[in-house]
């Protein structure tokens, strides 16, 4: 279906009773989405303005204040309700999970479908693959993405290659591995990592990272229902802190599509996950202090990523800043830069900049210095403008 | 070779050092490549020229004769057992033997008197495997369940049929548990209850004969699927004779392994792995499973796929990576897979299938299907993390999974001595809280019985079972391996001559004159299968490779934009250099 409002790139698909009704739901005012910490900023909440096309499609009463873990919980609840084969498992998911993402689900769906596994990430990943290979929907949880590495053999050698190596006879598309990522203020080496770059280097899996509750619910439902195995990375800092009005209905956000959160003409600023909140602040600072108009984009799906969207934006602005918490060397920003410089070489007015974590393990007491914060990003935006002009 | 000393070993009731057996060319050529391995490891600095020469001479003597399967030599010799200390040198009584049985027994004894080289076969009480593990034999099928007393010392190996094709009577078992004597009488009581219904087919008659000859095994014979005709004719043998099909397919598999191994040596395929010596595990297990049981194998289980119905053409198509390969030419040879036959595609990493098997079984359980998942792996794989995780998950999550370990003595060059310190693999079962049994992997009837019982247990209790099938890898690890670099030809020959599963089944069939089975018949069957393999191979070689776009398909369900772009780039590049690609 063609998009009535070309500005809106993303397509929200609203499911009703699992029939093939599709409504193009254009996202409401960007301030809702890009300010996930809306709980302290009631002004942006009251400024909900739905574009006229959505008034008939989208009932204002059908949303609920949800934080990230509630939205994820809601998504999984819907998934288990509609798909009898869906099961959730991992360490400590039975009592609700260490981040409460699975709260109440065992009581609702039973011990057979929501259960603890022994403490073994390779076991969780392998079990998920086996379950999905027999036409089941397996939602496995890796308690922290820092601990996903034992599962790497299963993810890279099995999950990613399952369909390909069998000649499309077998597949494990029903696998979704969920895992919290990202800085949390006090996580140190092993509770703060963002391993999306390692995963992205694996053809055959999909890697998704939502920026907030509303995106998370839609992306998680898409991921669970995707016919490809998905690793769904959840910014743990947002579990409680990010609150939005999230539609209570079943809806999916398209995988492989980036979303332009804020249109601009001077600089394209690209990020993913919880880090977008930092980027929003940097972009606001640049607007406020220097009148720079930034186009802020959320990649959403790390791989396969939406090259067209980013390239189109960079052709417009001529400048790109990529920012992520993970260390800069071989971080996913490197892939973006390499591809965009090739696609948009003649459009570029300045070198593409990466504002990322340093090449060190994620430090505890130095976290504030390590993080590519709003000031570092603001400086990058400024220097991009200075270079170009 | 000193024959008088051998007869002294057999008569004396004490341990004596191992004596080498006369080497025959048959077994070595059967298991090892008939052409010198092309692949050479880096020269061993310490190996001097003389050793090299001797080794080369020995290898040269193992070149095949013109006939690929000179069985006549074997038939004239009695089976000699070599190293196991004979604790009980009693010859099993054949009280209810059929006339032909008695005659053959008499023949054997006559031969002994005539020819000092020959000796009667004595049913062993123990078997010595690689790594010098001497394991007592039990002829009682007992699945050690969680909470039961695990066997003290070494877990016994369950065997029904001895090397000469006769069934054990249990009198000379090296292992007898305390409660066994009691349960044995119970088994006898059960036999009278079975209402035997015999048809007219040769298989039914054989079963009837066996029940008469071995009443203590009557119960097992009634249940053993290898001795039951199938409901419908099998497509490849055009008969419903299960046992004959198992035998025929073992012959077929043997020939296929030999020919495809040679094909690699000739450069026609890039790689191959044989399973010589482990065929009884494949067909014993496969015949005990249902088609709805999903198989997750390692890479040395092609017999199971063959039993399910994978044709020679399909095997060779995969090895030649042609357009008919179900895997679309994407993986190395022997990485078979078939959705239709419920056999998941093989992957090279060891053990990854083990936790997957637990997950697959959980799904089967939740969907209410009357099916198990069956997972195969070698003993080397049991050292991996995935083995531990997989078994632990299956036990804690109550998954109906059969974990079948082919303990074949080697993980490439690593013998079991360097692989584990404990009593093999099955001894770990109580640690995981799961049932376990150790079985003689070269006895097709025992493997079948164990897998059947394990399957029934798994389904009834929604619980996993660990089966350790003891066997021996007669061939190299793969075509990239030269196993004589790390093990003696003597050792290979010992197992090939005495513990070969095909020989054992063949002895059994000959003993009962089953379908006129003799060496001639076997040779003819082998020749037929050889021609069939060669024919399939020729056809496979001529087929074209899969279309180029299969390089990019199936990475994801739908081709993503990035891959489409890369595909276009490749096509554009090839268009510029058409003759180079």
TrEMBL record, chain A:
UniProt xrefs under InterPro entries: Transketolase-like_Pyr-bd, Transketolase_C
Superkingdom assignment: Eukaryota
Annotated protein name in UniProt: 3-methyl-2-oxobutanoate dehydrogenase (2-methylpropanoyl-transferring)
Organism: Nitzschia inconspicua
Start and end residues of each Transketolase-like pyrimidine-binding domain: 66-241
Example GO BP: response to nutrient
Keywords: Mitochondrion, Oxidoreductase, Transit peptide
Catalytic activity line of the entry: N(6)-[(R)-lipoyl]-L-lysyl-[protein] + 3-methyl-2-oxobutanoate + H(+) = N(6)-[(R)-S(8)-2-methylpropanoyldihydrolipoyl]-L-lysyl-[protein] + CO2
SMART domains: Transket_pyr
Principal EC category: oxidoreductase
A GO CC term attached to the entry: mitochondrial matrix
From TrEMBL, chain B:
Region (Disordered): 41-100
Record has Cell inner membrane as a keyword: no
UniProt keyword Repeat present: no
Enzyme Commission number(s): 1.2.4.4
Cofactor(s) named in the record: thiamine diphosphate
Catalytic activity field: N(6)-[(R)-lipoyl]-L-lysyl-[protein] + 3-methyl-2-oxobutanoate + H(+) = N(6)-[(R)-S(8)-2-methylpropanoyldihydrolipoyl]-L-lysyl-[protein] + CO2
Coiled coil stretches, renumbered: none
Top enzyme category: oxidoreductase
InterPro entries tied to this protein: Alpha-ketoacid_DH_E1_comp (IPR050771), DH_E1 (IPR001017)
Annotated Pfam families: E1_dh
Record's compositionally biased regions (Basic and acidic residues): 41-63
GO biological process: branched-chain amino acid catabolic process
Record's keyword terms, sorted: Oxidoreductase, Thiamine pyrophosphate
Composition-biased stretches (Low complexity): 72-86
Domain Dehydrogenase E1 component per the UniProt entry, residue ranges: 248-547
Molecular function terms from GO: branched-chain 2-oxo acid dehydrogenase activity
Taxonomy, superkingdom: Eukaryota
Annotated TM spans: none
Known function: The branched-chain alpha-keto dehydrogenase complex catalyzes the overall conversion of alpha-keto acids to acyl-CoA and CO(2). It contains multiple copies of three enzymatic components: branched-chain alpha-keto acid decarboxylase (E1), lipoamide acyltransferase (E2) and lipoamide dehydrogenase (E3).
Family: Belongs to the BCKDHA family.
Protein name: 2-oxoisovalerate dehydrogenase subunit alpha
């Amino acid at each position: 279906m063609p998009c009535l409002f070309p500005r809106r790139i993303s397509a929200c698909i609203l499911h009703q009773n699992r029939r093939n009704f599709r409504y193009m739901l254009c996202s409401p005012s960007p301030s809702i989405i890009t300010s996930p910490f809306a709980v302290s900023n009631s002004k942006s909440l009251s400024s909900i303005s739905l574009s006229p096309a959505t008034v008939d499609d989208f009932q204002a009463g059908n949303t609920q204040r949800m934080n990230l873990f509630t939205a994820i919980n809601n998504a999984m609840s819907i998934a288990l309700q509609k798909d009898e084969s869906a099961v959730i498992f991992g360490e400590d998911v039975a009592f609700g999970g260490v981040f409460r993402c699975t709260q109440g689900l065992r009581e609702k769906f039973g011990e057979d479908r929501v259960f603890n596994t022994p403490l073994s990430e390779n076991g969780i990943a392998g079990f998920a693959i086996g379950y999905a290979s027999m036409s089941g929907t397996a939602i496995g949880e890796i308690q922290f993405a820092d601990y996903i590495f034992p599962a790497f053999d299963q993810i890279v050698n099995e999950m990613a290659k399952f369909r390909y190596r069998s000649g499309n006879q077998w597949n494990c598309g029903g696998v979704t591995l969920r895992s919290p990522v990202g800085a949390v203020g006090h996580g140190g080496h092993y509770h703060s990592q963002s391993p999306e770059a390692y995963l992205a280097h694996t053809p055959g899996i999909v890697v998704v990272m939502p920026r907030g509750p509303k995106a998370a619910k839609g992306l998680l439902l898409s991921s669970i229902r995707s016919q490809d195995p998905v690793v769904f990375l959840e910014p743990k800092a947002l579990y409680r802190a990010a609150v939005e009005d999230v539609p209570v209905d079943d809806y999916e956000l398209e995988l492989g599509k980036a979303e332009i959160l804020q249109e601009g003409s001077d600089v394209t600023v690209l990020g993913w996950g919880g880090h977008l909140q930092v980027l929003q602040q940097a972009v606001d600072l640049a607007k406020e202090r220097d009148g720079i108009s930034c186009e802020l984009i959320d990649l959403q799906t790390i791989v396969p990523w939406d090259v067209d969207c980013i390239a189109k934006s960079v052709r417009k602005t001529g400048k790109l800043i990529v920012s992520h918490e993970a260390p800069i060397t071989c971080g996913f920003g490197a892939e973006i830069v390499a591809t965009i410089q090739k696609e948009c070489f003649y459009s570029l007015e300045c070198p593409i900049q990466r504002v990322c974590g340093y090449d060190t393990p994620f430090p505890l007491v130095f976290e504030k210095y390590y993080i590519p914060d709003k000031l570092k990003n603001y400086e990058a935006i400024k220097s991009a403008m200075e270079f170009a002009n | 070779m000193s024959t008088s000393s051998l007869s002294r070993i057999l008569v004396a009731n004490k341990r004596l050092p191992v004596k080498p057996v006369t080497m025959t060319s048959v077994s070595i050529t059967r298991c090892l490549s008939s052409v010198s391995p092309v692949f050479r490891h880096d020269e061993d600095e310490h190996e001097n020229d003389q050793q090299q020469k001797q080794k080369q001479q020995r290898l040269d003597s193992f070149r095949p004769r013109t006939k690929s399967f000179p069985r006549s030599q074997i038939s004239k010799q009695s089976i000699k057992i070599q190293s196991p200390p004979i604790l009980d040198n009693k010859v099993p009584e054949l009280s209810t033997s059929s006339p032909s049985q008695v005659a053959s027994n008499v023949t054997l004894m006559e031969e002994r008197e005539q020819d000092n080289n020959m000796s009667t076969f004595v049913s062993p009480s123990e078997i010595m495997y690689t790594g010098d593990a001497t394991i007592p034999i039990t002829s009682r099928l007992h699945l050690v369940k969680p909470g039961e007393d695990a066997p003290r010392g070494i877990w016994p190996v369950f065997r029904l049929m001895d090397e000469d094709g006769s069934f054990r009577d249990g009198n000379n078992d090296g292992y007898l548990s305390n409660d066994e004597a009691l349960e044995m009488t119970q088994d006898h009581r059960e036999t009278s209850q079975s209402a035997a219904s015999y048809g007219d087919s040769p298989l039914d008659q054989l079963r009837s004969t066996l029940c008469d000859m071995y009443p203590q095994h009557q119960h097992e014979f009634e249940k053993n699927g290898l001795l039951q005709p199938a409901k419908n004719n099998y497509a490849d043998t055009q008969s419903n004779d299960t046992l004959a099909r198992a035998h025929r397919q073992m012959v077929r598999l043997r020939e296929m392994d030999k020919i495809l191994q040679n094909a690699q040596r000739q450069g026609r395929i890039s790689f191959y792995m044989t399973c010589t010596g482990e065929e009884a595990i494949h067909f014993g297990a496969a015949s005990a499973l249902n088609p709805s049981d999903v198989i997750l194998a390692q890479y040395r289980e092609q017999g199971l796929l063959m039993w399910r119905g994978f044709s020679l053409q399909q095997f060779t198509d995969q090895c030649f990576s042609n357009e008919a390969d179900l895997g679309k030419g994407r993986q190395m040879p022997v990485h078979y897979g078939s959705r239709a036959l419920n056999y998941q595609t093989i992957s090279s990493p060891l053990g990854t299938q083990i936790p997957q098997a637990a997950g697959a079984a959980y799904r089967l359980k939740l969907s209410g299907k009357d099916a198990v998942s069956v997972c195969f792996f070698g003993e080397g794989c049991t050292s991996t993390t995935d083995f531990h995780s997989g078994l632990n998950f299956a036990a804690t999550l109550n998954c109906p999974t059969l974990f079948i370990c082919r303990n074949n003595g080697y993980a490439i060059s690593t013998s079991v001595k360097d692989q584990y310190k404990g009593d093999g693999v099955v001894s770990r079962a109580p640690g995981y809280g799961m049932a376990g049994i150790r079985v003689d992997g070269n006895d097709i009837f025992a493997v079948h019985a164990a897998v059947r019982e394990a399957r029934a247990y798994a389904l009834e209790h929604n619980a996993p079972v660990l089966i350790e099938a003891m066997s021996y890898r007669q061939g190299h690890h793969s075509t990239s391996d030269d196993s004589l670099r790390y093990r003696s030809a003597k050792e290979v020959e010992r197992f090939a001559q005495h513990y070969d599963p095909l020989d054992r089944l063949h002895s059994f069939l000959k003993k009962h004159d089953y379908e006129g089975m003799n060496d001639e018949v076997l040779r003819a069957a082998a020749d037929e299968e050889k021609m069939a393999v060669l024919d399939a191979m020729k056809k496979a070689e001529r087929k074209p490779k899969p279309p180029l776009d299969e390089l990019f398909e199936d990475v994801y369900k739908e081709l993503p934009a990035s891959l489409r772009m890369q595909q276009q780039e490749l096509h554009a590049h090839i268009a510029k250099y058409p003759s180079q690609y």
